[in-house]
Amino acid sequence: xxxxxxxxxxxxxxxxxxxxxxxxxxxxxxxxxxxxxxxxxxxxxxxxxxxxxxxxxxxxxxxxxxxxxxxxxxxxxxxxxxxxxxxxxxxxx
Length: 93
Description:
mainly alpha, two-stranded parallel sheet, 2 strands, rod-shaped
């Protein structure tokens, strides 16, 4: 376990996983008080429903989440389906 309280350890950013199980934004806020030098990267439980709350807190350095990838894949799949539909439609005309 890392002792974030040591001033000479140089830790300025930590991954906070799984954020939802470990208390979410409330836990990060609580940890920020005794460790003011630390910024957090929450992952696990961050999604479109709560991302704005996390990003509004000044101690959040970044956000990680699989929902970014899922959304990107869905967009790619939709674009591919649209291209295929356009191609099919051009043969019908």
